[in-house]
Amino acid sequence: MTKFIIRFLVLLVSLISPVVISQIKKIGVPFITSYSPKMYKAASENWDVIQDSKGMMFFANHFGIMQFDGVRWSIITQPENRSMVRSLAIDKDDKMYAGAQGDFGYVIQLSNGQYRYTSLVKLLPASAGNFGDVVHTVIRDNEVIFFSHEAIFIYKNNKIKVLKSKYNFDDFFETGNEIYVSDNGKGLLQLKNDALVPFPDGQKFAGMKIRKIFKTPKGLLLFTQKEGLFLYADKQIKPFITEADYLLKQNQISTGIQFSDGYFGIGTRQSGLIVVDSEGHLIQHINKQIGLQNDYVTSFKVDREGNLWVMLKEGISLIQISSPLSRVLDSSNSETKIYCSQIYQNKLYIATDNGLFWLDWQAYKNGKRDNIHFQHIQGMSENVWNIGVFGNSLLAFEKNGIFEVSGNSARILAKIDGVWQGILVPNHPDLLLAGGYTGLYLLKNINGSWVYQHKLKGFEESSRVIETDANNAIWIAHGYKGIFKIKLNEAFDAVSDVQFYNQKNGFPSSLFLNTFKIDNQILFGTTKGVYKQNPVSKKMLPDPVFKKYLGLENHIRLLKQDSQKNIWYISGENTGKMTKKANNTFDVEELPFRKLRYLYVPGFENIQTTAGGDVFFGTQDGLIHYNAVKNKKYQTKYKAVISEVKCIIPKDSLLFSSRYDVLPNKNKSIDDKLSAVLSYENNALHFSFASLFYDEAEATKYEYWLEGFEPKWSDCSLQTEKEYTNLPENEYVFHVRSKNIYDVVSEEAVFRFEILPPWYRTIWAYILYFLLYSVVIYLIIKYQKTLAGRQRQQLIQDQEKELLRSRAELNEQKLTLEQQNMSIIRENLEATINLKNAKVASSTVNLIHLNEILLSIKELISQIDKKNEPNVNFSLLTKINKLIDHELQGDKQWNEFEEIFNQLHDNFMQRLKQSYPELTPRDMRLCAYLRMNFNTKEIAPLLGISVRGVEDTRYRIRKKLQLPSDTNITEFILNF
Questions:
Q1: Helix (H) or strand (E) holding 76
Q2: What's the DSSP call for residue 324?
Q3: 883-921: per-residue pLDDT in tens?
Q4: What average pLDDT score do residues 549-568 get?
Q5: Which of 133, 715, 802, 927 is the most buried (most CB within 10 A)?
Q6: pLDDT at 820
Q7: Integer angstrom CA distances of residue 848 from 833, 925, 934, 936, 960
Q8: Residue 737 to residue 741: CA distance in whole angstroms
Q9: CA angle, corner 901, sides to 895 and 907, nearest 5?
């Protein structure tokens, strides 16, 4: 019931007052995101800001109305006179109203994404057309009020009512349901029923230069430009004293805003943003020195996520006032990487890579920060790895040794080459064990002071992470080797026992192991979750409790238990808190710490908690404070938007865009279902998209899906653009959605479009194809008929040709048979000739042999000496000789030879005799033998003469044949 009443009261307050639902931390400086003119590429001056129903941010810029979708900035429109825009307002239908210099009007968005500005000045009478800047634009019920110093314009039912003042107006204020106007001559007036009426005792406010009015339970709170704050109640004006008066009166108030927690944000000209509570206590002072781009604040706006947008004379800053995280900064902002932090004697100490620093924590916590800054502890200017309170002393462990810190100075206790941290020896509070680069060192508390004793023998490993268990064992984690469990001897001067554990003992890896103590139990952080040792098997096993809540997939980089038994952890890139409930289960909270991703110093992650609920995170971006009391809503709904759609070919042909003057403005009604019908030549598209969530916008991830082309959503990525080429004809829907750092998925944005088929696949093309097909079919049929007639004629001709061909083949076959017969006859003749040649050759060889014998006999007869051989019958020899001569003449044989020879050699003898009749028979015979290619020695016995006789005969024949001297007679005879 109590909760219901509280909610009802909050709702009631929100309805009756312009209070913005937001809070701002007192401790630390909220995270600030700055947008410089170089980033948004417009004028440096910004005067007003609004947010539409989708969550889009719009800014009144010197160049026009500027839009920011979380990714891209663009000028969306300008007044018709191209003057600067000074004020903005927006109604429930997202119709914007803008006040400019000498102009005012309204803006609507067209279906192609463009914004169209329509001036309302044309509705003014000629006498009211001369005015300057319209510095306020307010929507009230069914009317819009435009305020300038020269006149007030009330737009209603497409008519404008003009209110003027003899002395001109100074400023305009909307407070709850009431509107106040500051008149330079009459003081404070009220706008009622479209008329200005005097405010009670309004003349008292003349000349006060009021810049903002808020209604409070104590009365009207007035912000004046140079005199500070005043409270009007019971017809009296009294100064409202604050702790920031010295700032407010010196730096000129320019604007203001009221937060839901009762705080007031005050914008100044020279000192940035000042926040005070309802009692006047200083809560925050955020200026250029600690994060703003410029100290001249022109306007404020709290968005849906509770972030504060600060309009500046130069740039825009987004202050995340709703976050429970803030940065501990001071005016010097000297610290860098934070390795450790500690509160000791109301001082906040930070160990950095540039030494040890401190500041007055109590004064800083109370908001007195202008003169509070981190001071350097002399004597330590290098890496200070750790600091801790041991006994009544604050010890610092540094690259050069161990120091005792007292006030603003430090005294070296032990000059050692690198010490990581210290831990008390179990059951010996007067002994301190220090882990160094190359082993362990012992210090002893003597009379309240720590005194260095010696280095322990027997252990030389780097000892950066140390814990002790209930059995007095000391556990040391080496990030690249494994876990060491050691025990000291009774004299505490040496290590008596060393046990080593790594992957072989059950760890998922030997790398990046850590050791922690939770509820007096030793646990181990690994790359795959939290492990502990089985007391029986001594094996390392996953811890079931942490497995349930943290899983076994992430690298456990830190576990730390606070005084409330909450367990703080860093798992992978996530930081979280496990809060133990009565039933021994845990609530796990991670969302508030998502901003810490990627900020820790790798390997030196540190979280410091205090009994008062303060939590400090040491990062490479300074010290970050967390306050669990401050609640922020992380499940806020938001939308993804499609910023721009364009065809790649032709280049940058825009289909949808809010950028100013990229498409011709057309009178189209607003259509939430964006669509486009594209020709096939435009089948390559480029999409730009964004998310209307501005908290860590650069960490927002996107996924997209082109329905009709892709089967499913893409993977999440930081990509804010997507390009498609060579899309086939089809109807498509491009979907995009985002996931912010709190894992909240946005409402998706869609763009529907259709790609028409190419001209050769359109319905007209198909009709043309049908007509062409019909014509082709007709021509084919006609051609077939013509071709059939031709084929009949050709068939007749072919038949006639076939008949002639058959006859020709018969004749050819007959000729072939005759040729075959002739071949047979020729072969027979050749066989006969070969036989006769063989006979002639055989006869000739026999004849040669016989003649050689006869010649030999004749030679022997001629050698008989008649004188010496008286008994020889010479008459008989003479007869024998004659007989031999007769045989050598061989006329009978020659006649036979000549007959056969003429048959074989085409009547050679007759042709030769006819050609050369002077040749004798002997000459003819020699020519015949030459024809048969016989040589001289073979011819001699055939003719019955000597070889010399043959040569003489050859010579006579050459003359008779009349052959030249260079002609071979044998070749002549062979070729005759």
A1: strand 73-77
A2: S
A3: 666 555 555 566 767 777 777 777 888 888 888 888 888
A4: 95
A5: 927
A6: 82
A7: 22, 14, 11, 12, 27
A8: 14
A9: 105
